[in-house]
């Protein structure tokens, strides 16, 4: 047997594994790193978050990624060189972070790397009838494995599409394995660049779980704030949006895109929800609003599309608990809107069920890597994969 396979076999046989989950979302704020001890697999999965951090991206890193990010036309040479470069940068961030935690790389069994999403193209978003859904994450796993000496599982979304899904939201699996409850109806809402939720009916099975993207999370507020307010990367504590007035006509225009009438579940990215999207709505509106009013309206737009997607997919008047994660939960105005729009929901941070809201997505990918090595193929409900599937590709360091 090849020693790599033997090593992987030994890891799979351990009662528990140390898995380093990596998440870099569409917000491009930084690399979330979550060191998890994961015991068991499948419904017997138990996770302890040992350490976590977000390594902020420097302006240079962000600009390089933005040169190819969710654009219709990019330099192929630039895309090619960024694929290993991003992975090498991530490997350095991992080495530095482990050193700061006094943890040696050989104490970590696996890395679970999401990669950097460059383009997400559900069939609804591209014009080619003969092609299906596609998504592209770069920052190749081989370079992370070679750069850290740790076996790396990466590129989870391709298999989901190969099995008939849209490659997202993959949170459905970990949400079920970690958060399903015998008597409580639960919604797990994550507000990153894009917002998505998982609905876990009390005592439901994995093939009954529902999960979908809802539309923008922070992405449009971030893009608008970066463009029109000097020197900031997001509307911290909604300081800008709070000074504006919601414009209902603009709000209705923003909500009129055909994405919102597509059947659930569905996925989307900043390829649609970007500055052009706001600018076109403003042009149709025909009157000029202040940047503050637009930020206030974008905030409400985000909240309404999230709340309506949840209401559309839940039995009417069903009481439920909603556990929130992702950077959007730190936006107080967005959270106020959600409280008002979802009066049947008891809304709390995911920390209430033991999951740190800033590390949640990185933990969920650590769980998918654990499943790839020690679990069984998974089949989630309402989610359009036709067969049970195992996600992630394996990269050995040597
Ligand atoms: N204090 C805050 N006030 C308002 N928004 C915040 C705050 N903290 C974080 N955010 C938002 O969260 C975003 C990052 O969310 P994150 O969950 O990391 O998304 P992604 O998964 O796309 O990287 C930031 O870009 C910002 O919009
Ligand atoms: Mg982030």
Present the secondary structure layout:
Elements: H1 3-13, E1 16-24, E2 30-39, E3 46-56, H2 59-66, H3 76-100, E4 110-121, E5 134-138, H4 141-148, E6 151-154, H5 157-162, H6 171-179, E7 186-191, E8 194-200, E9 210-216, H7 219-228, H8 248-254, H9 275-285, H10 291-312, E10 320-325, H11 332-341, E11 345-349, H12 360-374, E12 393-395
Helix pairs in contact: 3-4, 6-12, 7-10, 8-9, 8-10, 10-11
Bound molecules: adenosine-5'-diphosphate and magnesium ion.
Structural account:
With 398 residues, the protein is an alpha/beta fold. It has helices at residues 3-13, 59-66, 76-100, 141-148, 157-162, 171-179, 219-228, 248-254, 275-285, 291-312, 332-341, 360-374; strands at residues 16-24, 30-39, 46-56, 110-121, 134-138, 151-154, 186-191, 194-200, 210-216, 320-325, 345-349, 393-395. The strands form 2 sheets. Strands 1, 2, 3, 4, 5, 6 and 12 form a 7-stranded mixed β-sheet that branches. The protein has a 5-stranded mixed β-sheet with strand order 9-8-7-10-11. The radius of gyration is 20 Å and the shape is globular. Bound molecules: adenosine-5'-diphosphate (ADP) and magnesium ion. Residues 25-27, 29, 192-193, 218, 222, 234-238, 326-328, 330-331, 361 line the site of adenosine-5'-diphosphate.
